[in-house]
Amino acid sequence: MTALSAKIQDVFDEPACDKNRGKDAKARKEGCARPLTPGAAAGGCAFDGAKIVLQPITDVAHLVHAPLACEGNSWDNRGAASSGPTLWRTSFTTDLTEFDVVMGRGERKLFKAIRQITETYAPAAVFVYSTCVTALIGDDIEAVCKRAAEKFGLAVVPVNAPGLAGSKNLGNKLAAEALLDHVIGTVEPDDAGPYDINILGEFNLCGEFWLVKPLLDRLGIRVRACIPGDARYRDVASGHSARAAMVVCSTALITLARKMEERWGIPFFEGSFYGISDTSEALRRIAKLLVRKGADPEILDRAETLIAEQEAVAWKKLEAYRPRLQGKRVLLNTGGVKSWSVVHALMEIGMEIVGTSVKKSTPEDKVRIQQMLKDDNHMFEQMSARDLYAILSGGKADIMLSGGRTQFVALKAKTPWLDINQERQHPYAGYDGMVELVRQIDLAIHNPIWRQVRERPPWDCQPDGKHQLPSANNDTATTRAVQNFAATTRTISAVEEIL
To answer: What CA–CA distance (Å, rounded) separates 391 from 436?
Structure first.
């Protein structure tokens, strides 16, 4: 069995996953990843999943050992933010050609690329990503990385997650394995304390973790490592010294949390910073874990004081939106932690949940949704664009919250839409983030453009359905403009029918 196959079987057999524990030994080895459709791996392969988890480590050079297209298709595909280094925004690739593949020059070219990056940028480390092409031709990136680390005196980390290995979620887990094998535990901090924690699965999209970190700072809690959002290599390498951990996106990094607990005794829990109640509960559980690991119990009282203060401020701000959003119906087409945390957040202000996707949710996520919605019919594993369109065009939802892939379904149905996935432009975490989320929903629903686009055009309001154009006695320019607009409208309608 190859090293990659062994890693894949190891992460598939995940004892921290209730769904996995209920399977027999053979089913556990097969894992939960769905096979990829040929030609449809963009944004969904293991390589892309590994880049998602590791690229937000900001002072590291991320080198993709592949033909140019692999790096071109994966670079900067998420809105993570950095408070300092910008090296992670620079795209590095070995740019293999057919000649390199045929002549077996891949490993030599990789070593030269590492040397050039080291001499030019002096990074804290270099992460080298294997891809489908280099895995198929058998380039030994681990041997090259080991030799380069000895030669240049810095960490060179092999990330063995080629796209052909499986899905994006599998790539998340393989990236975590690379951190466990080569990074975490390699640096001993000289300032470890009883209030150090790790945050796992937080990507700092739109800088939203910066809305949460000040709350932890006020409690005297230090984030030793936020993996991967706005992280530094040295912080990740010393993450084993933390006293507790919170997992934000369990489907991505549950294996990392479980193995860190086994190796270094770091207890963890799964929580969310989306919504007022969930943010408060996360702060409470962090404080309790730290007390369990030896911190002063007075942190519990300080946490409750902070929670009461922040909740009062947030609810006061939200009261202005409650009359405008009470009873509004929401359809969520997302997954993972947002499938339940955003549901809870919106229900807090009186909005009605029409349905929520649980495609990437854990069994624990689904249990939480069932407890909140009291009806399994509001959950769906996967809904086609046709079904989403039927719900929206039928007026069963006032707004859809989803990622960019389904925004055009909402626009075609002339229904307000808000991005809550990685492409979003606003941070929604923490108390202030919840206020911002509600504000954006209010702006979207009450935007006057939706009333206008739903109205029939004036030339299409006759009982017989014929277009009513101005008479010949009217201004010629006006008549021509209306005729052109009518023609454009008919063209758009024809295109919509095709789509």
So the answer is: 26
Beta-bridge mates of residue 199: 226, 246
DSSP-assigned letters across all residues of 41-70: -TTTBHHHHHHHHHTTBTTEEEEE-S-HHH
Matching residue, tokens 């033909």: 67
CA quadruple 116, 117, 119, 120: dihedral sign: positive
User: Within its chain, how far is the Cα of 490 from the centroid?
Assistant: 39
**What's the average model confidence in pLDDT over 167-178?**
91
Closest CA relative to residue 361, chosen from 9, 3, 17: 17
How many whole angstroms separate alpha carbon 115 and alpha carbon 19? 45
Residue 127 is classified by DSSP as: E
Phi, psi at residue 402, to the nearest 5°? -165, -170
Task: Give the residue, 365 or 144, on which the prediction is more confident.
Answer: 144
Domain residue extents for the chain: 33-182, 196-318, 322-451, 458-498
pTM of the predicted model as reported, rounded to 2 decimal places = 0.81
pLDDT in tens, 108-146: 999 999 999 999 999 999 999 999 999 999 999 999 999
Distance CA 438, CA 369 (A): 20
pLDDT digits 0-9 by tens, 425-472: 889 999 999 999 999 999 999 999 888 888 877 777 655 555 554 444
Structure tokens at 124: 């804290």
Report residue 72 as tokens: 């071109």
Domain 33-182 has CATH 3.40.50.720: no
Kindly report the number of other CB atoms within 10 A of residue 126's CB atom. 26
pLDDT at 32: 57
CATH number for the domain formed by residue range(s) 196-318: 3.40.50.12380
- Tokens 């198929």 — which residue? 136
Percent of the chain residues past pLDDT 90, beyond the cut? 47
- Which of 135, 173, 249, 133 minimizes the C-alpha distance to 9? 173
Which amino acid, 106?
G
Q: What are phi and psi of 101, to 5 degrees?
A: -65, -45
Picking from 64-68, 108-112, 421-425, which range would have the lowest pLDDT averaged per residue? 421-425
Cβ neighbours around 202 below 10 Å, total: 28
- Confidence label for 39 from pLDDT (cuts 50, 70 and 90): very low
CATH no. of 322-451? 3.40.50.12380
Residues in the chain: 499
Report residue 431: phi and psi, to 5°: -65, -50
* Identical topology for domains 196-318 and 322-451: yes
Q: Name residue 385's beta-bridge partners.
A: none
User: Is the confidence at residue 19, as pLDDT, over 80?
Assistant: no
Return the structure tokens found at 49.
């999943």
